Amino acid sequence: MNSNTHDVPFHARHDDELLTLDDVAEILRTPVNTVRWWRQEGTGPEFFKIGRRLYTTVGDLRTFIRTQRLASQPLLGKPTAV
């Protein structure tokens, strides 16, 4: 039985699974042009070419998401009253 990889939730996908720009945009709920801009600026997930097509892996996208989440957290906790 063939199953469509889009039917598999992101958290259940294997780290080595290939993703296209469109896949990444869908997963991040971001326009494809934004993902292209991130790639051009070097601020998005790492992409590589196979032939003429661009891909990243689920593992690389997870790393990108984790890095973004950690970067948005404050380095110090909220000050407490003394």
UniProtKB/TrEMBL annotation:
A Pfam match: HTH_17
Q: Where is the Helix-turn-helix domain?
A: 18-69
What the entry lists under InterPro entries is as follows: DNA-bd_dom_put_sf (IPR009061), HTH_17 (IPR041657)
Q: Write down the superkingdom of origin.
A: Bacteria
What protein name is recorded for this chain? Helix-turn-helix domain-containing protein
